[in-house]
Specification:
136 residues; alpha/beta; Rossmann fold; globular
Length: 136
């Protein structure tokens, strides 16, 4: 079930117009309350840990500069105050074997992380990912 309020943190997508468009369309579909855009994992943690924000979903690119997305995911699930969060991790990895390896490496997070190829980021696919993550 989609939580209320439904707030999203976008990590490293400030210049990605297509992703912003998809997110805005998703906002209408899922009645998203707020979307915060941050530049890296460290800034995301600051936003996530602020008690008034009540974030439900993090969407991040695998290749975020600085504080990496892997480190962000590990930190989220090692922190009992953040471990309820769901994460969509997008990647430009196009090789099937590499993407499968990425997917397997994320299995330890009990299906709370959904990998999505960058070329598959669309309103429909983001919507499917959200439904899968919150219906578990």
């Amino acid at each position: 079930m989609i939580p209320k309020p439904f707030r999203i943190v976008l990590v490293g997508y400030c210049q990605e117009q297509f992703v912003k468009l998809s997110i805005n369309l998703m906002r209408l579909r899922f009645k998203c309350d707020d979307i915060f855009s941050v530049k890296d994992g460290q800034e995301a943690l600051t936003k996530l840990r602020h008690p008034k924000n009540k974030i439900a979903l993090v969407i991040t690119d695998l290749k975020v500069t600085g504080f990496s997305s892997y480190r962000l995911v590990e930190t989220i699930y090692d922190d009992s105050g953040l471990s309820h969060l769901r994460v969509i991790l997008t990647t430009s990895i196009d090789q099937k074997k590499e993407f499968m390896f990425l997917s397997r490496s994320l299995e330890q997070y009990e299906n709370k992380v959904y990998p999505l190829r960058e070329n598959e980021v669309s309103h429909r696919n983001l919507g499917k990912a959200i439904v899968k993550l919150f219906d578990r």
